[in-house]
Write a structure and sequence with these properties.
The protein is an all-alpha fold. About 65% of the residues lie in helices and about 0% in strands. It is built from 11 helices and no strands. The longest helix is centred in the last third of the chain and has 17 residues.
C-alpha cells in the first residue's frame, strides 16, 4: 500500500472510504486498516487527523447524522403539501437508507463509540435521534395545519413510525423494502389520525 499518497480533504475521504467498507462488508469489517486501505493511504494518515479510531468513528457518525438534517428540513417544508402518508413514506426511505442503516449497528455494538456519542449528542442514539426529531416536528406541523387530528398523540405516532420503520428496513435481503411496503406501513400507523381533507 502506498505511503506517500496525499489526500485532499483527508477527513472527508477517510469518511467516504469508511462508508464504502460499511456498505460492502458491514460494521464488523470496519477497522482502521480497512479504512486506510480503502482510501489508498498509509495508516498513519488517519492518526494524524484523529486521536484514535473511536474518535474517527465518532466524527464519522456525527458527520453522517448531520447530513440527515437536510432531509429533516425537507420533511418539515412538505407540511401542508401532498399527502401526509406520501411525505412520511419518502422521508422514512431516506432516513433509513443504506448509510443510516449501516451506522446504527455500528453504534449499537461499539461501547466506546456509544459512550463518546452520548457526550457529543445527549439526545439519544445518533441517526435514530435525528429521525425521531424530524418525524415528530413534521407531525406537529401537520397537526397545526389541521391535517392531523388536534388530539393526535404525536409522541406515540413518532415512536411507532421510527421504531417500526427501523425494523422494516433492518436485515432486508436483497435490499430495502419497496416503496409500496413502506407506504402500507405508514398508512397503518397514521390512518386514524390523518384528516382526509385539510381543515377549512
Amino acid at each position: 500500500m502506498p505511503t506517500g499518497v496525499h489526500l485532499r480533504d483527508a477527513r472527508q475521504q477517510l469518511f467516504d472510504a469508511a462508508e464504502r467498507v460499511l456498505l460492502r462488508d458491514g460494521p464488523n469489517a470496519l477497522t482502521s486498516r480497512a479504512v486506510t486501505d480503502e482510501a489508498g493511504c498509509a495508516k498513519g494518515v488517519l492518526h494524524r487527523h484523529f486521536a484514535d479510531f473511536d474518535a474517527f468513528l465518532t466524527d464519522l457518525v456525527l458527520d453522517r447524522a448531520a447530513q440527515l438534517e437536510s432531509q429533516a428540513v425537507a420533511l418539515r417544508e412538505s407540511a401542508g403539501t401532498g399527502t401526509v402518508v406520501d411525505n412520511l413514506t419518502g422521508a422514512l426511505t431516506v432516513l433509513f437508507g443504506p448509510i443510516p442503516m449501516a451506522i446504527i449497528p455500528l453504534v449499537t455494538f461499539r461501547d466506546q463509540l456509544r459512550e463518546r456519542l452520548r457526550h457529543a449528542t445527549p439526545g439519544g442514539v445518533a441517526i435514530l435521534a435525528q429521525a425521531t426529531t424530524a418525524v415528530s416536528a413534521y407531525l406537529a406541523d401537520e397537526r397545526d395545519l389541521g391535517r392531523i387530528a388536534v388530539d393526535a398523540d404525536i409522541d406515540s405516532l413518532t415512536l411507532s413510525l421510527v421504531g417500526g420503520g427501523h425494523l422494516l428496513f433492518t436485515d432486508r435481503e436483497p435490499g430495502p423494502p419497496v416503496t409500496a411496503a413502506v407506504h402500507r406501513f405508514v398508512t397503518s400507523v397514521v390512518t386514524g389520525a390523518v384528516h382526509r381533507r385539510p381543515a377549512r
